[in-house]
From TrEMBL:
It comes from the Bacteria. The keyword Cytoplasm does not apply. NCBIfam families: CocE_NonD (TIGR00976). InterPro entries: CocE/Ser_esterase (IPR005674), Xaa-Pro-like_dom (IPR000383), Xaa-Pro_dipept_C (IPR013736), Xaa-Pro_dipeptidyl-ppase/CocE (IPR050585). Residues 329-564 form the Xaa-Pro dipeptidyl-peptidase C-terminal domain. Signal peptide: none annotated. Keywords: Hydrolase. GO terms for molecular function: hydrolase activity. This is CocE/NonD family hydrolase.
């Protein structure tokens, strides 16, 4: 069994088995490395699989962890702390998905491996690892973000030797990952093209799914149609990607599919998770609300033993990824090593509450009883529990004109604020923003950000909401304070008409302390730089509106523009 080389890292000797060839059922072989202690005996294994390249993950042995806004932060080094995994007496298996890195085969489209569901390959990897003499047959998985999503795909296939998973920061509903409220998000471009702090996909043979299913003539027509969107046509990178998709195949596919439906639903991990019956630990930090939303949605679907851990702001963890390992090893010591450490005696849900900095635990999300209550937009940029009594002729609308970013560097923002709170006010859950608005174009973006503003003017982002105006339709999942949009079609707005737009405010947990205010900001583009954006990679913004738009926000007796927020009953 001793066919490994020995290296030294993290103050210890580590055995490395390089370039293992893992056979898939269709004859393709995937490449993997295995790291473990030098004592030659079987151990439980933790598998990390991605399209980013196993050699990049090996930098965790030599590169000190970086936090944003360090320019050395690389978002793709996500497989975990190799030296720590070895120290805890596990085998760390790091492999390349088919069509990437040192693996064979072809990858077609996002989360689809050459016509083979990625879960099928992951099933074969799990079972192969479990059969190796250096593994004791107990297998889990490890890694954040892309690696987290892969764990869900693997578990949904039910490989017999996958005993539990620990998912940190995964991305699940892939439409919601790439279009927030129907507005294109650029961060998947970074992870796929290698931009703005990400190394990107380790291309070997990756292909566009759109190019596979459409003839060149059909695709040219579809590309021309996509370029008729003025937002897309105004953004140079998107014009370039659509005209020259080679080596940008994954991002090309995302840009070409701006509506939800079959293209995204075929491999939606949330739906696949209905098949998962092994123990699942879900961990996510606040500050990037859409990923919090996905973890909660997945948690509600799972039927086996499960935990949901929502951590504190800021949103971006270190790269190489090292956080959450203490929790992860408690989880795997229980499920893979049989150590009764009491973790399953603890509540299923744990939520860090910003402001109070308390940790609230419960059996479910939200962890406390809540009352959805409104805060109304009022004249003079105020937020109040009481609605406006005057009509539009006396309570004239607020508004802003936004020129396209092709001709200005200024992002216009209109805001409303509460008075300073006199006692602590706690909110935990999702929320909604009802905006009665009139625009002079057939589309725009509504981007809302909620802040906790301290008496000294310091502020922290609490949650966000996004909605492309043409995606304003609601579906039958919608309840008070918890709106959903189908995003299956775009319905142009009739310029000059007042419409009600309902934005989903992503899940959050915050206590506003005495003297603090709740500030809500509305724009149709994101600020080019602020304290929150500095914590995100450079590409973590949304596609700006490519046309000039005038926005009027009505908030009068006939147009009750308001926030609907989850006030906990304890602080009612």
């Amino acid at each position: 069994m001793a066919d490994f080389q020995t290296i030294h890292a993290g103050g210890q000797a580590i055995a490395v088995r390089k370039d293992l060839r893992v056979p898939m059922r269709d004859g393709v072989t995937l490449a993997a490395d295995a790291y473990h202690g030098t004592e030659d005996r079987p151990r439980p294994a933790l598998i990390a699989m991605s399209a980013y390249g196993k050699e990049l993950q090996a930098l965790a042995l030599t590169t000190p962890p970086q936090r944003r806004p360090s320019p050395m932060w690389d978002g793709c080094i996500e497989a975990g702390d190799i030296a720590r995994v070895v120290k805890e007496d596990y085998v760390h298996v790091i492999g390349d998905m088919r069509g990437t890195g040192d693996s064979g085969g072809v990858m077609i489209g996002n989360y689809n491996a050459g016509g083979v569901p990625q879960g099928q390959d992951l099933y074969d990897v799990v079972e192969w690892v479990a059969a190796q003499p250096w593994c004791d047959g107990n297998v889990g998985m490890i890694g954040i973000s892309y690696f987290g999503s892969m764990q869900v795909y693997a578990a949904a296939e039910r490989p017999p030797h996958l005993k539990a998973i620990f998912v940190s920061g995964g991305h699940f509903d892939f439409y919601e990952t790439t279009y927030h409220g129907g507005i294109m998000w650029f961060m998947p471009r970074a992870a796929r093209e290698g931009r703005g702090g990400d190394s990107g996909i380790a291309h070997t043979d990756v292909r566009s799914r759109m190019q596979e299913v459409h003839s060149p003539e059909e695709l040219r027509k579809l590309v021309d149609e996509r370029l008729r969107d003025p937002d897309v046509a105004a953004w140079p990178n998107l014009v370039h990607v659509l005209r020259y998709p080679r080596n940008r195949e994954f991002w090309f596919d995302i840009v070409m599919n701006d509506l939800d439906g079959e293209w995204y639903e075929e491999r939606n991990p949330v739906k696949l998770a209905e098949n998962i019956d092994i123990p699942v630990y879900l961990q996510i930090d606040q500050g990037r609300g859409w990923t919090v939303d996905g973890h909660i949605e997945l948690f509600d679907v799972l039927k086996g033993p499960k935990k949901l851990d929502i951590g504190s702001y800021p949103p971006m963890q270190s790269r190489p990824w090292i956080e959450e390992h203490d929790k992860m090893f408690r989880w795997y010591d229980y499920w893979l090593k049989g150590i009764d450490n009491g973790i399953m005696d603890e509540p299923a849900v744990s939520v860090f509450v910003e402001g109070s900095r308390e940790v609230v635990t419960a059996a479910q999300w939200p962890p406390k009883e809540i009352d959805y209550r409104p805060l109304y937009l009022r004249p003079r940029h105020k937020l109040s529990p009481e609605p406006e009594l005057m009509g539009a002729e006396h309570a004239a609308p607020d508004g802003f004109y936004q020129a396209p970013l092709t001709v200005t560097d200024k992002v216009e923002i209109v805001s409303w604020s509460t008075e300073p709170f006199e006692e602590p006010v706690e909110l935990i859950g999702t929320g909604a923003a009802h905006l009665f608005a009139e625009i002079d174009q057939d589309d725009t973006n509504f981007i809302m950000r909620l802040w906790d503003v301290a008496p000294d003017g310091g502020r922290q982002l609490i949650t966000t909401g996004f909605l492309k105006a043409s995606h304003r339709e609601l579906d039958d999942r919608t309840t008070e304070g918890n709106p959903y949009h189908p995003h299956t079609r775009a319905v142009p707005v009739k310029p000059g008409e007042i419409e009600e737009y309902v934005l989903r405010l992503y899940p959050f947990a915050a206590t506003f302390r005495p003297g603090h205010r709740l500030l809500v900001e509305l724009s149709n583009d994101e600020p080019l730089a602020d304290a929150h954006n500095a914590l995100l990679p450079p590409d973590a913004f949304h596609l700006p509106v490519g046309r000039p738009v005038t926005h009027k926000i009505y908030r009068d007796a006939a147009h009750p523009s308001r926030l609907v927020l989850p006030f906990t009953k304890r602080h009612g």
